[in-house]
C-alpha cells in the first residue's frame, strides 16, 4: 500500500466528474488551458514547484509540477485534451453513473488516468510523504493529434528522468502496456488536369483515378504477420460528375512494430511523390509520428513491480502489446524505462459508449501512487 492516503473510489469519482464536465477538445486551447489552470492552482496550493508553458500553434498550455527530492526524478505524464467536441456532454454523452460504469466524454481516454496522476502528486505534496525520488508531473494539451507542440517537452523531461509512467487507459482485462506500435501519418495530394467528362474526356487527367491506384499500392504495404498496417482515410477529390477531376487527396495512417519497418514504409510512401510526365503530379508530406515502444528488460522490471502492488490492492495486472501509440512511445525510444496503460479500467475510447469502471479508481490510483513513492531508478 502507498504511504499516501489517496481516498476512496467514491471520493475520486466525485472530483473526476468536474474534470469530465469541463470539456477539452484538442482544438480549443482556451478550454484545455482552463483545466490546466485548475490543476495548477491545486498544485501550487500544496507547495508544488509549478511551471506553465504557454501553448502555441493553436494548442493549449502544458503544466509541469516538481516535488522535492534528490536525484533523477520519476516522470508521470498524461494529456488533458480529448477527441470530443464542445456540446457532446449535453447531447450524446452526458455524465452519468450506471452501476459500476461512469460515462462521459474523455473519461476513459484519458481524464481518469491524468486525474489519478494529478491526485497522487497533489496528495503526496499535501501529506508531505517522502518519496525515494522526486516526481515530475507533466500534463499536456495535444496528444490526440500526435503531440505536435508537447513532444519536445515530453522528451526533454524524459531525458532528465530515471523512469516514465504513463496513465493511459488500461486495456482488456485491466492490462498495462509494455510495448506499442510506432505510428506514422502522411497527407497525399494529387494534381491532374480538368476537362469536360463528355466533350473532351481525352484531354483530362483524373486525379481521382491516380489516387485510386496509389491507395491500392498503399494497402498492399500491409503485412499483418509482421505487424505493419496501413489505412487510407479520409479521401477527397473532384467537384462535379461531368468534370474530369483535377485534384484529389487522402490522409494515410500506418503502424509498425520496428524502427526498420517504419523507415521502409516511410520511404515507400514518399517514393510515390513526383510527376508522371503525363499531367499527374503527386505530393506527399508527413512521416513517422511516434517511434515504436519496444519491450525491454527495464520495462519488464517496472511491470513486475507494478504487478506486485496491484496484487496488494486486490487485482491482477496483465501486460499488453498495443497497436495504438501514446506519449510513452517518445520516452521509450530515448531508452528511458517506460510503463504505460496505468490508468483506469473501462472501454470505448473515442466511442459513444466511453466509460470507466469507477470502483477501480482507488486501487488503480493506489498502484500508480505506490510506484511514484518507491521507484529508486
UniProtKB/TrEMBL annotation:
Record keywords, A-Z: Hydrolase, Metal-binding, Zinc
Cofactor: Zn(2+)
Entries under CDD domains matching the protein: M20_CPDG2
Record Gene3D superfamilies: 3.30.70.360, Zn peptidases
Peptidase M20 dimerisation domain mapped to chain residues: 178-275
InterPro entries on file: ArgE/DapE_CS (IPR001261), Bact_exopeptidase_dim_dom (IPR036264), Pept_M20_glutamate_carboxypep (IPR017150), Peptidase_M20 (IPR002933), Peptidase_M20_dimer (IPR011650), Peptidase_M20A (IPR050072)
Pfam families tied to this protein: M20_dimer (PF07687), Peptidase_M20 (PF01546)
Transmembrane stretches, start-end: none
Protein name per UniProt: M20 family metallopeptidase
Organism of this sequence: Plastoroseomonas hellenica
Amino acid at each position: 500500500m502507498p504511504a499516501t492516503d489517496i481516498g476512496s473510489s467514491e471520493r475520486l469519482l466525485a472530483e473526476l466528474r468536474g474534470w469530465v464536465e469541463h470539456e477539452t477538445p484538442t482544438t480549443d486551447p482556451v478550454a484545455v488551458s482552463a483545466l490546466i489552470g485548475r490543476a495548477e492552482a491545486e498544485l501550487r496550493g500544496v507547495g508544488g514547484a509549478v511551471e506553465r508553458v504557454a501553448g502555441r500553434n493553436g494548442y493549449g498550455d502544458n503544466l509541469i509540477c516538481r516535488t522535492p527530492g534528490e536525484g533523477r526524478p520519476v516522470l508521470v505524464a498524461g494529456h488533458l485534451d480529448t477527441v470530443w467536441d464542445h456540446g457532446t456532454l449535453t447531447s450524446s454523452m452526458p455524465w452519468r453513473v450506471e452501476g459500476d460504469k461512469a460515462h462521459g466524454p474523455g473519461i476513459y481516454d484519458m481524464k481518469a488516468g491524468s486525474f489519478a496522476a494529478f491526485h497522487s502528486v497533489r496528495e503526496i505534496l499535501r501529506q508531505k510523504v517522502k518519496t525515494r525520488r522526486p516526481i515530475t508531473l507533466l500534463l499536456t494539451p495535444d496528444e490526440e493529434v500526435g503531440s505536435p507542440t508537447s513532444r519536445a517537452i515530453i522528451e526533454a523531461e524524459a531525458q532528465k528522468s530515471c523512469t516514465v509512467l504513463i496513465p493511459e487507459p488500461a486495456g482488456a482485462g485491466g492490462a498495462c502496456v509494455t510495448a506499442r506500435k510506432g505510428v506514422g501519418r502522411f497527407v497525399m495530394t494529387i494534381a491532374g488536369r480538368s476537362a469536360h467528362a463528355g466533350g473532351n474526356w481525352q484531354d483530362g487527367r483524373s486525379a481521382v483515378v491516380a489516387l485510386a491506384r496509389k491507395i491500392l499500392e498503399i494497402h498492399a504495404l500491409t503485412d499483418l504477420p509482421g505487424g505493419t498496417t496501413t489505412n487510407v482515410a479520409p479521401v477527397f477529390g473532384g467537384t462535379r460528375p461531368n468534370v474530369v477531376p483535377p485534384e484529389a487527396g487522402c490522409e494515410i495512417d500506418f503502424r509498425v512494430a520496428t524502427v526498420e519497418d517504419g523507415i521502409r514504409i516511410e520511404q515507400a510512401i514518399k517514393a510515390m511523390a513526383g510527376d508522371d510526365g503525363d499531367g499527374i503530379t503527386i505530393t506527399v508530406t508527413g512521416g513517422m509520428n511516434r517511434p515504436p515502444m519496444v519491450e525491454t528488460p527495464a520495462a519488464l522490471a517496472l511491470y513486475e513491480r507494478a504487478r506486485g502492488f496491484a496484487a496488494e490492492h486486490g487485482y491482477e495486472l496483465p501486460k499488453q502489446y498495443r497497436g495504438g501509440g501514446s506519449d510513452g512511445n517518445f520516452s521509450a525510444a530515448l531508452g528511458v524505462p517506460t510503463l504505460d496503460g496505468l490508468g483506469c479500467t473501462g472501454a470505448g475510447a473515442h466511442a459513444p459508449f466511453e466509460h470507466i469502471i469507477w470502483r477501480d479508481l482507488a486501487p488503480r490510483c493506489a498502484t500508480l501512487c505506490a510506484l511514484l513513492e518507491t521507484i529508486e531508478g
